[in-house]
Amino acid sequence: MKKALIKISATFFYTGQIPFAPGTWGSLAATLLYLALGVRTSLWHVVVFVSLALVGFLTAGRAESVFGVKDPKPVVIDEVAGVFLVFMGLPLTLPTLVLGFVLYRIFDIIKPPPARQAERLPGSAGIMFDDLFCGCYAHLALLLLGRWL
Q1: Which residues of 125-145 are buried (b: 16+ CB within 10 A; e: fewer)?
Q2: How far apart are CA 75 and CA 67, in angstroms?
C-alpha cells in the first residue's frame, strides 16, 4: 500500500496531523461525521463504521513504519472508529453528543482494562482495539446515565 494512501487514511484526511491533541481532533471529526449521517442510527452509520474499522485495521499498523514509531500520535482512524461505537443506536441530542464525546475522550485517556492490555497488542490490533473498547465503555456509560437521569 502506498505511503500517501496509508497516511491520508490513518490520519483521517490529515486530521491527526493537527499539532495539538490529535486524538481529540480525530474524535471531533468522527462525531461530526456521525451527526452528518443523521440523528438516528441508520444502515449508513453501520456501513461507515465497518468501513472505518476495516481501513483502520488495514492501515494503522502500516502507519507505524510510515511515521517510524509505535502507535503514532497522528494516527486517529482508531478514534474515529471508536467514536462511532459511542453513538451507535442512540438518538442524537445535543447532550448525548457532548457527553458521548467527553466520555469517549476520558475513557481513551484512562484506558480501563482490557483497553490498556489491548493497546499492547502488536500493529493494527494494538492501535485499534483499545479505542474500540473505549467506544463501548462510553456507549455503556451513556446508556447507564440515560437510565439514571
Answers
A1: ebbbbbbbbbbbbbbebbeee
A2: 9
Q: Cell 492490555 maps to which residue?
A: 117
Of 77, 28, 72, nearest to 56 by C-alpha is: 77
* Domain boundaries, given as residue ranges, for the chain: 3-148
pTM of the predicted model as reported, rounded to 2 decimal places: 0.94
Give the three cell numbers for residue 46.
453501520
Distances (CA, A) of 69 to 73, 85, 119, 123: 9, 27, 14, 11
- Indicate if the alpha-carbon torsion angle 105, 109, 114, 116 is positive or negative: positive
pLDDT (tens place) for every residue of the chain, 149 residues total: 699 999 999 999 999 999 899 999 999 999 999 999 999 999 999 999 999 999 999 999 999 999 999 999 999 999 999 999 999 999 899 999 999 999 999 999 999 999 999 999 999 999 999 999 999 999 999 999 988 76
Q: How far is residue 70's CA from residue 73's CA, in Å, rounded to a whole number?
A: 9
CA distance 14 to 117: 28
The CA angle 20-115-127, to the nearest 5 degrees, is: 55
